[in-house]
Structure of EF-hand domain-containing protein:
Amino acid sequence: MDRESIEKRIEEVYKKKNFFEMADAKYIWLMFFGFKVKKEKLLPFSEDGKISKSNLIENIIQYSSIADDDFSIMSQLMDIHHRGFYTENCLARLFQRNGEDPAVAKRIFRNLDLDGYGRISYSQLFEILHS
């Protein structure tokens, strides 16, 4: 993701706002990544309980580049049985390994599993991550 496209997407919702309350910053994160970031992860970048648009954009860029770089590694880690798809439990294990709540992963998975078959292919996940 580039700075310009991120800023444009934020502007669509928040117009010319330059600082965000924590709840708004978490919502913006949700818009880009599909999950709410923990307040503690944004606090170091906040000033007086608010986070600037430029700091938030930098965090989004940094996180998205990590997500892109690690996509193939994540694919290998999640699909431990090499079946070509992910299950709810695969995503939960990945979240748990990274110190995140596996219950959140399960909720995310259920939202992503559009056909309700209980699995998501590599291509489906890649398409979702880059939409």
The longest helix spans residues 53-69.
